[in-house]
Amino acid sequence: MDFLVGLSHPKAEQPIVNIGRNSAVYPLGASASSQRSIPSLRFEDCDMVVEEGQAWVVVGTSGAGKDVLLQSLLGHTRIHPSPPPPGGLFPFLTLRPTPLDPCKFVSLVSFSHRPKFQTGFWDYSARYGAVWDEDKRTLRETLFPELVENIRRAELNLPERPTESNEGSEVKKQEVLLEWLIEELDLGRLLDLPMIALSNGQTRKARIVKTLVGQLGARPELVLLDEGLTGLDASTRKSILEILYEVNSRRSPRIILGNRLQDGIPDWASHVAFVEPSTNSSSSSWVVRTGKADEMKDRIARYQEGVSTSSSAGISQPPIKKDGEVLVELKDVNVSYHERKILQNTNWTVRASERWHLQGSNGSGKTTLLSLLTGDHPQSYTQRAPSSLNLFGKSRNKWATVQLRKEIGIAGMDVLNAWPRGRKITFWEVVATGFDGGFISLGPKKVGNGLAEEEQQKRVERVDEILRKWWEVQPYRAEDLGTYSKRSFSDLPVGGQSLAIVLRALVGKPKLVLLDEAWSGMDADTVKAVHAFLRSSDALSEDQACVVVTHWEEEVPWRKADGIKKYILQDGRGQVV
Ligand SMILES: Nc1ncnc2c1ncn2[C@@H]1O[C@H](COP(=O)(O)OP(=O)(O)OP(=O)(O)O)[C@@H](O)[C@H]1O
């Protein structure tokens, strides 16, 4: 990796980031006078001065204070008092002989939530079918068209195209970095796939690579990587952390990592900025404390011990029945795209009452498998003997996909991302769409169209019931359920939105519940409470089955002792372990 040394940006004599002691952070446009507005975030008896050679991690809850701090580093908030001249927020860029524009040389790659402005419905099942023209951009074209073209030419032994990519030029450095990253993250075999065909984890890896390399001729000097580890399998997380260590220690580029509490702090971190909820909400919503990593690790551990532990005590757990009714049966099922085989002779039986952990590395076919069960995948229709796919007692071909939506509750990032944010809809109404699995709130009582008065009333009572039961175990008491239920879904932090999607999957008591990375964006306490809730008969009865997809063992609500089974996908083949 010594070649990375040649890519290093010049060593800075000045701090990389400079936020003064006891600074406060306000939304842009808010008054900085303490009499008139409350800051979103306050540095408590500390500053944030990042020196060259240090490795910083910002730790906190998703969609909350951590995000505010990272946004501040992008200049999207007002810091009071302003980072002083000379140098301001980024002295290392501004005090150079030729100053550089932070907007161009500081980049953020964030996986913590989807932009609010996307208003229409995003059809997540589109990737399984024919690929439309506008979706045809390949990973190669998206990543870095000019540079990747040269890599392709090298593969074919063609001469390099004459560009400004001379030895020692910025473009050449980008080319070297890109090639190394593609190799390290095993993206080479995906370069000619359309972006839409990539799995969630593959897309995340590609976005990280793109951000580290930067725009043509402009490598970033500093990258803020927020929640870059979520949705990645254990070995990819390890590779990403090693890559980040290498690039940060060689300034090519420098990295500030944003982690959720549950992601932990990498061994190589030298300093941590920990963003906690404020205990005095009239002084700020969030408090930042900074310090050396070892000291901060202790502080964070104490914080985690101190926060409410939502226990399962008193919660009645339904017994797991042996030999429940067969709900789903896959026999020798295959899915392929041309010569690319994704699932090969897959066999799997899911029975009522069972709890499953579906596991497999990024791109191993977990989402594809779930899309067969929901009937969203076109190849769910095309299984021919000896292959067969039976859902709830009959062949998949005998089901209309809309009917399947009533039998299956599904929650996860795809559903969350697909939600049309432009339409005004409340938390309560989102949960209520779960009866029919739709994305629009319908009917006079918002629980569905064309229903008899009695059925409508039953549904309203069921939504109220599941919300009330959830509210009894949820860890936060600042707001009452009535107010929370009326809150606009798109204004909720991403953890609140994920929670609504999980409750939506449960509300109709479907036979099968699929939870695909469903805790994304939730803070550690909420995840704990959701797990306890799922173990209880208030969430799932003994007649329902549940499949959980996650790359983190600790994010599975059930343990072996609870009777959980594991189905692992590897190299296109599935195995019960
Ligand atoms: N239309 C398509 N054409 C070619 N390959 C595709 C297409 N759609 C999906 N794939 C490939 O199928 C594989 C399985 O994708 P899938 O989303 O099921 O993986 P996953 O196990 O859910 O991954 P992750 O953990 O990253 O979410 C991936 O390698 C993906 O690139």
How would you sum up this structure in a few lines?
This is P-loop containing nucleoside triphosphate hydrolase protein. The chain is built from 17 helices and 21 strands.
What are the main properties of this structure?
single chain, 577 residues, alpha/beta, Rossmann fold, nine-stranded mixed beta sheet, six-stranded mixed beta sheet, 17 helices, globular, binds adenosine-5'-triphosphate, hydrolase
Sequence stretches where pLDDT stays below 50 over 5 or more residues: 114-124
> What is the end-to-end distance?
38 Å
Tell me the CATH architecture of the largest domain: 3-Layer(aba) Sandwich
Oligomer: single chain
What is the number of beta strands? 21
The percent range for helix content is: 25-40%
Number of helices, where a helix is a run of at least 4 consecutive DSSP H or I residues:
17
- Rg calc: 25 Å
- Structure classification: alpha/beta
